[in-house]
Specification:
Largest sheet: 2 strands, antiparallel
Shape: globular
Radius of gyration: 24 Å
Number of domains: 4
Length: 498
């Protein structure tokens, strides 16, 4: 049984921890508001987001477009080879432009929307059911499929485990990503069946190879209509023979298989451990994992009541968990924007930042998703974080110019970046907006304010001494000096964790 956090331990530090982990952090005023609500009120303010209005409308292209697909296909059939090549290139440019818009649309919801916890859950499910556009782009109008899956994660973010697994299994992007749409009774494809058991719901050692082959047979018939862009069940493709999966025998179908998965006690243990690791920054002990799994099971495999208990638990605010998780690139970028109260960079630049830090949204590296934790930190990615801090704080692409920015690992679109950089301000901190006159004039007050805002903790003696030495060289602090001080804090080890 998870122990509730004692009331006397609820304070600014623990409220900041909740906002950082269950959201993307925020300015001191937002943390203070959660502090005043008390633990239960703060948890409810984040989790019970349904009554809050949505934010940006859906992209105008976020819908099936069978007419466009049919027209494109007919044009390819009749066009000479050179013209067909141009048509494909034109369509690819359109889809890539939409995908970049999609990344910006989602980042805007994270950074500026009223439902940070919902978006944090979408980010978790995106990494958990790691579906990459690198393969989904093999089908027409693939940007819509990536948006549709993103919306699925948003709609069922804190819903029922079996419903989520089932709808993900029938999701068009997933059907393409793991080849389920090509599975036939004559040659069942095992990819989705295997990944459900290995990576999504059970873990290695909790199923057999026979379970995989039998589950693949059960899933035959689950397919995809690439023109209508919807899931379809094709009875002619389904294996109607008797199968046995995880001890259940019968003429099983895909729904039967996933229901049997969720019936396994290991399923609750597996998914709650993944959730704890994502939010707490470490895998739970066996004893804690058992308590987490029992909480989910007792609540009918509904995630919201489970998460409410988790975020109220004393274990979630233990010394081992507080300020002990490396920020993911998304957490770093979105959290920085929220704490500094500056603008999110344009989509192309924000995406390039995340890509060079190691987290390319809608393109996880493999079926396991991102490893997270210390894997986010390398010599190259740390340097990228320091340079991107300058971009956010100064509002320019300095100290790298746009062309250099585009040439970083994973960077692309150099000419587009250069054009954006010339005409649009990128972020930029307004020091008078986030710091009082006293804090801007007094080095001691400034250091305390920056620690309060950016770390919700104190710098190490070494880091604070370096910052103080810089500030003491200034006879009078200018806005440029203060922005440099912010950059120095963002370059400390303390800023890379939350």
């Amino acid at each position: 049984m998870l122990r509730p956090l004692p009331n006397e331990r609820w304070n600014y530090e623990t409220a900041a921890h909740l906002l950082n982990r269950a959201g993307f952090g925020g300015p001191p005023e937002e943390i203070q508001r959660l502090t005043m609500l008390g633990l239960d009120g703060a948890v409810s303010a984040l989790l019970d987001y349904e009554h809050l209005p949505g934010v940006s409308p859906d992209p105008v292209w976020a819908h099936p477009d069978p007419d466009h697909i049919e027209k494109f296909r007919r044009a390819l059939k009749t066009a000479p080879p050179d013209e067909a090549k141009k048509l494909r290139e034109q369509e690819n440019r359109l889809q890539e432009t939409r995908l970049e818009e999609l990344r910006g649309w989602w980042l805007d919801r994270m950074a500026n929307g009223p439902r940070p916890f919902q978006e944090k859950m979408v980010l978790f499910w995106h990494g958990h059911f790691a579906t990459s556009v690198q393969k989904v782009r093999m089908v027409p109008n693939y940007s819509y499929l990536m948006w549709r899956q993103n919306e699925l994660f948003r709609r069922l973010a804190t819903g029922n485990w079996l419903q989520l697994l089932t709808e993900v299994g029938k999701d068009p992007a997933m059907l393409v990503w793991l080849d389920q749409w090509q599975s036939r009774k004559e040659h069942p494809n095992e990819n989705f069946a295997r990944e459900v058991m290995e990576l999504f719901a059970l873990g290695i050692g909790h199923y057999t190879e026979k379970d995989v082959t039998e589950a693949a047979r059960a899933l035959t018939g689950w397919s995809y209509n690439p023109v209508q862009q919807i899931f379809v069940y094709r009875p002619a493709f389904h294996d109607n023979g008797v199968k046995t999966v995880l001890g259940l025998t019968g003429n099983l179908n895909g729904d039967d298989f996933l229901a049997q998965i969720v019936r396994q006690p290991q399923s609750a243990k597996f998914i709650t451990a993944k959730l704890w690791n994502f939010f707490a920054g470490q895998m739970p002990s066996p004893e804690l994992n058992t308590a987490l799994a029992e909480t989910l099971s007792l609540n009918g495999n509904e995630f919201k009541p489970f998460l409410r208990v988790m975020f109220r638990s004393e274990e979630f605010y233990s010394d081992a968990v507080l300020r002990n998780a490396v920020k993911s690139p998304v957490q770093w970028l979105v959290g920085s924007v929220r704490m500094l109260q500056c603008s999110l960079p344009p989509p192309l630049i924000a995406s390039a930042m995340l890509r060079s830090m190691g987290q390319d949204l809608f393109a996880p590296p493999n079926v396991k998703g991102w490893d997270g934790g210390l894997s986010w930190i390398t010599t190259n990615t740390l340097l990228t974080r320091y340079n991107d801090a300058a971009t956010l704080v100064e509002g320019t692409l300095q100290p790298l110019d746009a062309a250099d920015f585009a040439r970083r690992p994973g960077g692309r679109g150099g000419k587009r970046l250069e054009k954006i950089a010339r005409r649009i301000r990128i972020g930029g901190v307004e020091v008078e907006k986030i710091l009082s006159p006293e804090q801007r004039d007094n080095p001691n007050a400034l250091i305390a304010a920056l620690e309060h805002r950016l770390l919700q903790a104190t710098l190490s003696n070494e880091q604070e001494s370096a910052l103080r030495e810089f500030l003491n060289t200034k006879k009078q602090l200018t806005d440029a000096d203060i922005r440099q001080a912010i950059r120095l804090v963002m370059a400390t080890p303390e800023y890379q964790v939350t």
